[in-house]
Design brief:
It contains 8 helices and 4 strands; from the N terminus they run αβααβαβαβααα. The protein is α/β, with parallel strands linked by helices. It has 2 domains: 143 residues, Thiamin diphosphate (ThDP)-binding fold, Pyr/PP domains (Rossmann fold); 41 residues. The chain has a 4-stranded parallel β-sheet. The protein is globular.
Length: 190
């Protein structure tokens, strides 16, 4: 938010997009702080887009144990910001809702929240096994096709030429190359 404000002060176009995890939305004070300052003259950026990756990251506790509000995005009520809910298993819907949210922000110069509701297929890291604390949920998750598989099936049903496997392979190769560059990088000492 600060970087966006600085760019705007220098007459540059800037769209402030903040990415939050579901637990962080209600658990980190900085979220309430930036939301509370969203429309103050000296801090405003003409509306921020808050993208919430609501993937059950705080899976070790239920919603009733982690917040007083029903939704992790209820902090948006503080400033009367709209909240759009999207199903993470439907990428085209997420894209469409994102366009609507950005249009809203651009037209009204107000904050908007996008709550992308999904799940984590794996734990926090390679040492984490989420089925220990949520066995029923993770039994269902393991039986559910991945977002990529679901989207590929959707494209095939519509008769759209599918290059998903080739695209994923190319993207994976790109990520591997970038990772290798970082491994080979030596920072300059001042």
């Amino acid at each position: 938010m600060g970087k966006s404000r600085a760019k705007q002060d220098n007459k540059s176009n800037s769209l402030c997009v903040m990415v939050h995890g579901d637990s962080a939305m209600s658990g980190q004070g900085v979220v309430a702080e930036v939301t509370n300052m969203a429309y103050l003259h000296d801090y405003t950026v003409g509306g921020s887009v808050h993208l919430v990756v609501n993937n059950q990251l705080g899976f070790t506790a239920t919603e009733r144990e982690t917040r007083s509000a029903r939704y992790c995005t209820d902090i948006a009520k503080l400033i009367g910001a709209p909240v759009f809910h999207a199903n993470a298993d439907r990428p085209e819907e997420v894209a469409a809702i994102s366009e609507i949210a950005i249009d809203f922000r651009n037209k009204f110069k107000k904050d908007v929240f996008i709550n992308v509701i999904g799940y984590r297929r794996y734990g926090h890291n390679e040492m984490d096994e989420p089925s220990f604390t949520q066995p029923s949920m993770y039994s269902k998750i393991r039986a559910t096709p991945s977002v990529v598989q679901l989207y590929k099936q959707s494209l095939e049903k519509r008769g759209v030429a599918v290059t998903v496997d080739a695209e994923l392979s190319a993207f994976s190769k790109y990520l591997d190359e970038q990772f290798q560059k970082m491994q080979d990088y030596t920072p300059k000492v001042l």
